[in-house]
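Good morning N.,

You mentioned wanting to compare the apo and holo forms, so I went ahead and generated the holo version with pyridoxal-5'-phosphate. This is what I fed in:
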Amino acid sequence: MTQLKQWQHADAAHHLHPFTNQAEINKTGTRVISHAEGAYIYEADGHKLLDGMSGLWCCNLGYTQPKINQAIAEQLQELPYYNTFFQCTHPRATELAEAISQRAPAHMNRVFYTNSGSEANDSAIRMIHRYWDALGQPQRKAIIARDNAYHGSTIGGASLGGMAFMHKQFTPLENIHHIAQPYWYGANADISPDEFGLQAAQELEKKIQELGENNVAAFFAEPIQGAGGVIIPPQSYWPEIQRICDQYSILLVVDEVIFGFGRTGHWFASECYGLTPDFIVFAKAVTNGFQPLGGLLISDRVSKALLSHTDDLAHGFTYSGHPVACAAALATLDILSDGYIDKVRIELSQAMEDYWLALGEHPLVGEARCKGFVGALELVKDKSSRKRFDKNGKAGALCRDASLQSGLVMRATGDTMIIAPPFILDRSDVKDLTEKAWQALDITL
Ligand code: PLP
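and this is what came out, ligand included:
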């Protein structure tokens, strides 16, 4: 048996995969990714792929970053583990909290650490309850989120999320309510994107009024829905959401697990949309995906309320602020600070507009869209009527496989193809990526 077959055999026998149809891979064999370099990953059989998804939206600086590796190795020598519980800290957790705060919107100056984005969203729910308790309004427990959102896979994260297929597999938490996503193309609306965006935002106000404004604690949203298909809101959407949150004193939680640390060409997408969140949820790219780390950036007004409690905060994780993960994050922030944020905002955003949007000309593509260094293609049966394929997901799966054949990792969510490539690409790489995507669309057709 070849080494590859041995891995596949052991995998089928012993490994339960997340977000995978296990019955299907047991028939076809798992794809084994054995090594990576720069923006490329390699399958164990040698097949080379341009990673258009930066892993799972996390290796934004690609796979070869010796400075991060060195920081990890040095930290393992110096202090491989200590916790941040019970009045303790360690240098890296402290330095990183300061470094993140310095890059955050000016009113956000405190960080709570978790290991992942899901835990960070769960933690946000806990902090929100504590905030309203501090303000003497403990009845404010209702949370509003959006259809088709992804906020993680813990019970809290998945309850906040709005994906019906996930909710079917467990019993979501009570008192989390969902409003529509600002998905102009998908709604096939006959009004302008801005009118549509305004109406979508005003659903929040209607929901607050329905639940009773003194019962609503917070609104959770991704700045751009990522896993839901890169749903870029119309320009009118976020200012109206901010107005509504301000008017009703609802806490605004912006889940930047995908967009934080540069994806829109700003440190945080909240800046790009002019938002003043109470929490920014982060994870993934903070360590370039090299170590698990997530957390919450907390606004000064929320910090003040949280610190007004005189009892212990009864919440935390053994690995909150793990020193090795914090060391990886500090090195990542250092590298990102060396021109990458500007590169995304100026060079790569322009390359996406020039090359990626041109994929909209392909007969299979109903809409090509991009923002910063993220993009999506909507596959349709008929462009002019925006008619979808009968079985949602079939064309997407075919295109994903065709893309692998063409040497590119694109992700399919239903019949929407998405990409979020590493910032180490340049304009000519984006052209190359787009040519591979076109080839994949041709094969799919
Ligand atoms: N929030 C968003 C917006 C995400 O995209 C994800 C993961 O993709 C999460 C939360 C969950 O993060 P994690 O997988 O680190 O728990």
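Residues 116-118, 121, 150-152, 222, 226-227, 255, 257-258, 283, 294 surround pyridoxal-5'-phosphate (CB under 6 Å).

Happy to go through it together on a call whenever suits you.

Best,
F.
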